[in-house]
Structures are given as structure tokens and as C-alpha cells.
Amino acid sequence: MGKIHKWLRSRQGQQAVVIITFSIIPLLLLFVFTYFPFAEMFKFSFYDMKYVGERKFVGLKNYITVFQRDDCFRALWLSLYYMGGAVIQLALALYLATVFCFGIKGGDFFKGCMFFPYLINGIAIGFIFKFFYTRGFVLDTVLGWLGFDLENLPYWLKDTSINNVSLVATSVWKYFGQNMVLFIGAMMSVDSSLYEAAQLDGANKWQQFRYIMLPSIKTIVMLNLIMSITGSLSAFEPPYVIMSGGGNGTATYFVKMHEIAHTNQKVGLASAMAIVLLLIIFVVTILQKLFFAYVFKDAEDEDKNAGKKREKQLAKAMKKQKAREGRA
Predict the structure, then answer these.
(1) Average pLDDT over the chain, rounded to an integer
(2) Model pTM?
């Protein structure tokens, strides 16, 4: 005990205690609020149960039911709308980030304006766009000023051929500013001497973007795409708030899962839906990583070859230096 007490009073012992303490607290919170609830949800997926009452073990029946329900597949199909919006969102964010990176007047002001929607609460955005799309309100009024006939305009939230597109537009408006800022941060970390050398060689802006900027920020591009696609699979706020619970054919997978769990009180089935969604997100993430590994394969090979050349040049320079020192 005396040795332990002496070690605890030493500088090394105090450092170990601080490290262990600061590690245990976040790990404990992570276990209590993440891993333990997930384990419980996984267990619930094998039961026919409500929030209160008896539980009946049904094995894989809930998972089979998920793949047999047409409404679950329709909800997953709607995720394609949000995935398409995510691609548009990333393309727009990448384009604007490139423009701002090369420099424009008032760039900081415009960047702040475009990032601001991300700071607004999703529920508030839902109510904003609910009135924005209402017949005869903001969007119809603006289009009327531009010469469009109100009678020929669609009902943005009632028309099933366009209401999901309208909801996706709200997500694009909210999140493209966040992606743009992440892209700008990555672009600003690229060595400016590379652009100067490219300009001296006669490279235009597009060539600088294609051969210098894009390969340098490929990691953040992949991260943004993964976050956007996985977010598309779990879209909830736009259909739930704007369409009052996903009505008129706008219920996404998350909205349908919420309805099954809280309205129909089928907790086991909703838990199975959550596990299935997790597996889908996992598969999509792996496919995205494989896709980017294939797309940037040439760039990685060029980086490796350039690195080997630099190492050879450095080795030759070291040999010459040693030879000169030996002669001296």
C-alpha cells in the first residue's frame, strides 16, 4: 500500500489518474446513452411488444415483416429523392467553395449568408417552408412577379408528383452552406505555391481545380458525401414538420418508423426497422469508400510515384553531400 500511495503522489501517478478519470467519464456517458440503448433496441427487435405490457419473443419475424411491408419499401424509395438532392447540394457547395477560394469581393459576407440556414433549427425551417410553399404565398407570389400564371403553377405540397422534390429543396437550402464551409477549410489548407507554379506553367482555373485542388481535398469530399448520403436515408424533419407527419405520400423511412413505434405501438417492429436502416447505411458507406478508392486511384498512384522520386533525389543529394565531406 505504501508503494501505491507513493506512486499516486508522484507526478507520473497523478498524470495516470487524470488520464484515466478523463477517459472513464466520456466512455461511461457513451455507454449509458449510446451503446446500452442500442443493445436494448437490438434485443427489442426480436420481440412483439409495446412500451408497456407483456413481451412475446418472435425471433426474426419482425425483420421478415420489414421486408414484406410495402410502406417500408415506399419510404426507402423516397430516400432516392434525398440522395439526388444530396448530390446537387454537394456539387453546389463545391462550386461555391471554389469560387470563394479563388477570391471575390464581399466573399465573407456571402459565406456568412449561405452558412446561416444551417444554424436555424430544423423545426423552424419546416414551418418557414410550410408557409413558403402554401398556395398563393411567398413562392407563388415571387413566380407571379416573374410572369408565371398562378393557375398554371402546381400545388407544391399537395401535388404528389412534385411535393417530395419541394421537401428535398429545403434540405439542400439548409445543409449546402455547411458543406461549403468544410470544403473552403480544406481548400485553404492547400499550399498556395502549387497554384503559383501552375499559373507560371499556364494552367487556367479549371486545371488548377482539377489537378491541384480536387485531389488535395478528396478526403473531405468523401466525408461530406458519406454524411450527406447517410443523412438522406434518415431524413425526418422536412416531411414530418412541413407535411404534418409525412402525409400525401411524403413519409420517409424515419417518419414511418416513428409512426409504427409511437402511433401503432409496435416497438419491436420499429426496432427491427432501425437495425435494417443501420445495415443499409453501413453497406452504402462501404460502397462509397470503394467508389472513391477507384476514382482517386490514379491520383494516389501519382502521389506515390512523386514521393518515391523525391526520396530518390533526397538519397542522391545525401550521397553527394557525404562524398564532399569525405573529400574535405
Answers:
(1) 83
(2) 0.77
